[in-house]
Hints:
The chain has about 850 residues and is of the alpha/beta class. It has four domains: about 1-230, MFS general substrate transporter like domains (Growth Hormone, Chain: A); about 235-505, Growth Hormone, Chain: A, CATH 1.20.1250; about 510-560, no CATH class; about 570-855, Vaccinia Virus protein VP39 (Rossmann fold, 3-Layer(aba) Sandwich). It is built from 31 helices and 14 strands. Strand 10 and strand 11 (about 740-750) form a beta hairpin. The radius of gyration is 30 Å and the shape is elongated. It starts with about 30 loop residues before the first helix and ends in a 6-residue tail after the last helix.
Amino acid sequence: MVTATALPLTTHLLTTHSNLMPDRSSDRTxxxxxxxxxxxxxxxxxxxxxxxxxxxxxxxxxAVSLGVLLGTFMGGMCLGSLLLPxxxxxxxxxxxxxxxxxxxxxxxxxxxxxxxxxxxxxxxAWAGHGLANYFLRGAVxxxxxxxxxxxxxxxxxxxxxxxxxxxxxVSWLGFFYGGNIAGAVLGCLLAGFYLLRIYDMATAxxxxxxxxxxxxxxxxxxxxxxxYALPPEHKAATGGRDSPPTTPAVWSxxxxxxxxxxxxxxxxxxxxxxxxxxxxxxxxxxxxxLAVFLIGLGIGSSFGSWLSRGSTSPRLLLGGCQLLLVGxxxxxxxxxxxxxxxxxxxxxxxxxxxxxxxxxxxRSAWAILPSAVLWGASFPLALAAAAVxxxxxxxxxxxxxxxxxxxxxxxxxxxxxxxxxxAANTVGAILGAVLTSVVLIPWLGxxxxxxxxxxxxxxxxxxALVPWLLFPAAxxxxxxxxxxxxxxxxxxxxxxxxxxxxGQHLPPTPGALIAEGRYLGVRQQYYPPEGRxxxxxxxxxxxxxxxxxxxxxxxxxxxxxxxxxxxxxxQDMRLQRMLGHIPALVHPNPRTVLVVxxxxxxxxxxxxxxxxxxxxxxCELEPLIPQRVAPFFSRENYxxxxxxxxxxVYDDARHYIRTTREKFDIITSDPxxxxxKGAATLYTQEYFEFCKARLNEGGVITQWVPxxxxxxxxxxxxxxxxxxxxxxxxxxxxxNEGAGxxxxxxGHVGHQTIDVDRIVNRVQDxxxxxxxxxxxxxxSGFHLLATYAGTAQDLKPxxxxxxxxxDRNLRLQYLAGLGSxxxxxxxxxxxxxxxxxxxxxxxxxxxxxxxxxKQRMGMLPD
Length: 862
């Protein structure tokens, strides 16, 4: 999301006239000030990415948790923009104030590395579930994020006061904004593509803090060499402080820019979801989308600043900008649903992932850049419109004559006005982002949400233009003739009619896009119509978009955000049953089970075939999956959702495991691919330790590890990280027609052996269990046990160079993200199994069964 320092610092709107006596030598400082803007934007984006990753480890990564984090982050910046002009006197040197704010941000950024884990421990000790827990999550976010974000928000009005004293800097302010946005884009890409991929959160934080320190030192140096003094008449009139204008005309500007911010952040949420369907949900995709959005804001704000310098009607320009946004939103909606998904781009043909990233950048820009440019232009135009209001032009001098005073005033505090406009924009942005992600998308869907955005943009235009049409004073302030009012009124009516028509004709999100994702265009072009899938169900939930499709051969597929997550295909059914039956058979007496991820419900349903199991808890992030998807697989999952032994918990699995007090005999985890942003937290050493702590003595854990759409580095990291916590663990292979496909990792609490004789007899004697295994190709207990592919000890030579995935680096999501379009599963599997030996210390069997198992595993001739 866009931070305070990444927003345009377009305060030159207040600097055209001033009674302060500037030091013309300060022109020499302008190149140094440009560096301040670059550094401030870069550091802010690095912090935002790092802090969100750290806090998601504490309070979870559900839509509610992300909404809490985003609301707190932006709320802190809003407070900072309002509080600084009230409590910091104008008599203080603005650059010195700005420098101290940067030092404070850097200090708190470093402290956060220590504080956030401690807060996480306290949260875990007190956390529960339900409504009360949401308030506790908000308290944690406030404690960690408010101090630094208040300082971030305060930087904008602080710089505004400095720019007011340097009218010769007006021509440079476009470069300042460009530098600020360049810094924000640099921070986004530096963190997303380098610092967090190669290093970790601590390194990224230290880099950001070093940038803060450099910015502060430059600022203090410039301040010490540049005189600054508030004229006596300003002190006498305002005491160093005054209030921003509060006329109805100015309030309409606040409303317009607030609605603009609401539409901008709401659109960012929607478009990020749609773009991630067609580009893949990797961390790189999210970094690219954010970078494009920031670039658009930068271009737009620079253009808006240039327009406002020579315009006597910034209110009209602001209103016109909002009307243009109606068309830009409709453009993005069409491109993201009817055009870009059908571009015949096959990601498998790219020689390296970096080629795909370039194409993703182009596709993102083609769709969302026009809107971002217009939203970027809205902020400087709103400042200009507020600055020329009669109340502001008169200043705080009660005897002042609005007509006789220049825009910019003599007594008003530019920081107050900038802070008020920015606060209005930020409040709107908070509402837009949180309401869209938590309420509107699951309630209305992305199509109707975009229709609503068109209405919000039209409402912003009305808020800006209606006062100009109704109040002659506003027209005079804008320098326009009232005689133009009828023509503008008719034009506005026509534009609103056009907005209504566009809103009515926005296209829906295709179910095929939710199902096929980035391969939609390729499959639509090359697959015959009779070979395409039939959409049985599509839904857009709070956390993800889901679809159920059926092939002509009767195969049912379950898709999450453009990727198949479960199906009735033989290889998928076999894996889902393995994740349930292997731990249930290995454990001597399993009674309680935790299933991470509902999916099609087949894994959870497998435990129902074991009569000793008394309780199954399914932890699922997206409510649509158990409620709407699982019933399509009721035959395969044994109607698991309706079973009395089953409880469904809607929460982030990591958060649930960390905060629950319950212990289980079995935990089985079938998360989404680790390259999907946020999923790597379910593959870290710390996560496996949390799971181990929630297992009873003798407990068993299984973890899915995909070999397809991956690379050797990612698979080694997943396997080695698991074995760090479960050193006596083993690997079990799920082949696809004899070739590698995916695997199941098996771990134990304490030393444990697998009783081959008991398992073979159990499968043979239990009709229900035997039939469940027979359906997926396991004709006996030997067939199931023969999927054994090696122990942790066997695989040590293979994993010796693996990178362990920790909470503080989450390096796996960066490794896996580079292999998301690669299919090297056969090579990876062959590398793994060549280290396999028969595990005499793991398997306990009589000589006859041991011989039969070795033959089934291919270790002896038949």
